[in-house]
Design goal:
about 425 residues; alpha+beta; OB fold (Dihydrolipoamide Acetyltransferase, E2P); Elongation Factor Tu (Ef-tu), domain 3; conserved putative lor/sdh protein from methanococcus maripaludis s2 fold; six-stranded antiparallel barrel; four-stranded antiparallel beta sheet; about 30% helix; elongated
Length: about 425
């Protein structure tokens, strides 16, 4: 009885456990099934997207962004450049021609003076006294000459009347000639002493600018060429001396033969700014064999005093002008060994084209092989190649200018 009871109790306990296991098994299958469905849906979705992407046409790659420039038609000059030195046409070193004491200086340092202006006075009293003595001697000897001539006239009349001998007449004639010689000596002495007095008043020999004062009142000066009292330099006009290579001499001479005025520009040291303009004056008469160049002189009016004596400047000589040339920026020309080329832009495609560069001036180069109006690339050359697509810059929109407010008519009122 007890065994049967135990068996029934065990069977009753095992029956709920089997039911629980069955429910868990079903739930696991359901989860696996749902996960499989989700996975299958994801795979199908990915496959569909892949096929759709495969059907789409890939857009072409974007073109290379560049900047461009347009070939123009214009004139360009053929220039020769060189370093030059500003050289005055005249420079006068003022020295004293007499010995004496400086009593006055009439100029200010750096002053503009005219020819004939008095610069320095030297004490003239000694030379004035000497001049007065020479004038007295001249006056005495002129009177002696006059007396000798009167005696000669009397002797001639007396000789005609046979009152005196021929020897007496001849002696008197020679005496007159001697007195004439003495008078000429006296005249020379007067002129010499007058010059000495004049030299006591030193005047400017040329028009120009005077330099620093080298002598003061109270100084004793000597008539020596080594002692400079002042320096006067002509600055208007003024010249510049520079050199021309002998290889370019022929074309310069050809222009001078037809009396062409060749323009010369003077630049400051950085060669960026023109400070004066003039024209070629002349060429030297020989070529320097050590440098293979010939000296040239250009003249400038220098009204603004922009050129200063002994100043180093950069010169640019205009030899000729090419008219109607095709011009592009020098930066647009590329080199491939000895050949030059540009990228011509047509329908947003870059085409390589060979060109022959010529004269370059102020960043522009004259070329052959290109027509005015054609557009060429001016940047991104490291990325460009023949027949490659490019992207052109979009021009900036013009700013909108607001319209001015209409003026109120008489009798109208604001709302």
């Amino acid at each position: 009885m007890s065994e049967e009871t135990n068996e029934h109790a065990a069977s009753d306990q095992q029956q709920p456990n089997n039911t629980l296991k069955s429910r868990k098994h079903k739930r696991t299958k359901m989860i696996i099934w749902i996960a499989s469905v989700i996975l299958l849906a994801v795979v199908l979705l990915l496959l569909i997207r892949h096929f759709n992407n495969a059907k789409k046409v890939k857009p072409p790659p974007p073109g290379i962004a560049i900047t461009t420039t347009t070939a123009t038609k214009g004139d360009i000059g053929i220039y020769l450049t060189a370093i030059g030195t500003v050289t005055p046409i005249y420079t006068a070193s003022i020295t004293s021609q007499v010995n004496g004491l400086v009593i006055a200086v009439h100029f200010k340092e750096g002053q503009l003076i005219n020819k004939g202006d008095t610069l320095i006075d030297i004490d003239p009293r000694l030379y004035t006294a000497t001049l007065l003595q020479a004038q007295g001697t001249l006056e005495r000897d002129e009177n002696l000459l006059a007396q000798a001539r009167m005696d000669l006239d009397r002797y001639r009349k007396a000789w005609i009347g046979e009152a005196v001998s021929k020897q007496v007449l001849d002696d008197q004639e020679k005496l007159v000639l001697q007195d004439q010689g003495i008078v000429k000596i006296d005249q020379g002495m007067v002129q010499y002493d007058q010059l000495q007095v004049d030299f006591c008043h030193i005047t400017a020999p040329i028009k120009g600018r005077i330099g620093l004062r080298l002598v003061d009142p109270g100084n004793v000066v000597q008539s020596a060429a080594t002692l400079t009292l002042a320096v006067v330099t002509q600055i208007n006009p003024i010249t510049v001396i520079f050199t021309i290579p002998e290889d370019d001499l022929a074309q310069v001479q050809a222009r001078l033969r037809v009396h062409a005025k060749l323009k010369v520009d003077a630049f400051e040291r950085t060669a960026q700014k023109i400070i004066a303009s003039g024209e070629l004056l002349t060429l030297d008469n020989q070529i320097d064999t050590t440098t293979g160049t010939i000296k040239a002189r250009a003249v400038f009016d220098n009204k603004g005093d922009t050129l200063f004596p002994n100043q180093f400047i950069n010169t640019r000589l205009l030899v000729n002008t090419i008219q109607g040339a095709t011009l592009i920026p020098a930066s647009a020309i590329q080199q491939n060994g000895q050949a030059s080329f540009v990228y011509v832009i047509q329908n947003k495609i870059a085409f390589m084209r060979s060109v022959t560069p010529g004269v370059t001036n102020a960043g522009s180069t004259q070329v052959t092989g290109l027509n005015p109006g054609e557009v060429v690339a001016n940047s991104s050359f490291d990325k460009l190649q023949d027949k490659i697509a490019v992207t052109l810059p979009v021009p900036a929109a013009a700013p909108v200018v607001p319209k001015p407010a209409a003026a109120a008519t008489p009798g109208s009122s604001a709302p």
